Amino acid sequence: MVRKSLENGSLFIKNDVLAMIASICAEEMEGVTIVSGFKDGVTGILNRNFHKSGITVIEEEEDISLEVKIAIEYGLEIKKTCEQLQAAILHEIKTMTDISLTSLTIKVEGLTNTQALATT
Q1: Is residue 5 situated within a structural domain?
Q2: Is it the case that residue 37 has pLDDT exceeding 60?
Q3: What phi-psi label fits residue 55: left (phi over 0), alpha (psi between -120 and 50 degrees) or beta?
Q4: Exposed (0-12), middle (13-18) or buried (19+): which is 59, by Cβ within 10 Å?
Q5: Nearest partner of 18 among 52, 62, 61, judged by Cα
Q6: pTM listed for this prediction
Q7: Is residue 6 situated within a structural domain?
Q8: What value does the CA radius of gyration of the chain take, rounded to a whole number of Å?
Q9: 40, 58, 80, 105: which could form a disulfide with 65 (CB 3.0–4.6 Å)?
Q10: Greatest Cα-to-Cα distance within the chain, rounded to the nearest angstrom
Q11: 56: burial class by Cβ within 10 Å (0-12, 13-18, 19+)?
């Protein structure tokens, strides 16, 4: 949980809010799908990190990092798509929460082929 000081008190932002913002950014980006697995959730629990739906929020003292696991549609430029997703997530989290992430790692776990699905 992130704590921000306000004029007359404090604001607490749960890690799942950061994960939700990242998830919505990914959902809005054409050709990107969040991926997750059972093993990831167990690893997140054991490492005391917050993990939800392919997004891991890592808190270390004052540093907050995100790891986002995605699949990209076949044919899209992977590097460019990841850079766009990273920029969108960083912008939305900063704009909505005034939190600057220490790092945002995008992991491409696979490819999807929606064209093949549409033709079958």
Answers
A1: no
A2: yes
A3: beta
A4: middle
A5: 52
A6: 0.81
A7: no
A8: 16
A9: 58
A10: 59
A11: buried
How many independent structural domains does the chain possess?
1
What's 37's domain CATH number? 3.30.70.1350
Instruction: Quick: pLDDT tens for 65-94.
Output: 999 999 999 999 999 999 999 999 999 999
What residue type is 92 in one-letter code? E
In degrees and rounded to multiples of 5, residue 45 shows phi and psi of -65, -45
Residue 43: inside a domain: yes
CA distance 79 to 77: 6
Rounded CA-CA distance 33/27 in Å is 7
Q: Domain range holding 73?
A: 14-119
Q: pLDDT exceeding 70 applies to what percent of the chain?
A: 81
In the predicted model, is pLDDT for residue 116 greater than 80? no
**3-state DSSP call for residue 105?**
strand
Whole-angstrom distance, CA of residue 53 vs CA of residue 48: 16
112 in any annotated domain: yes
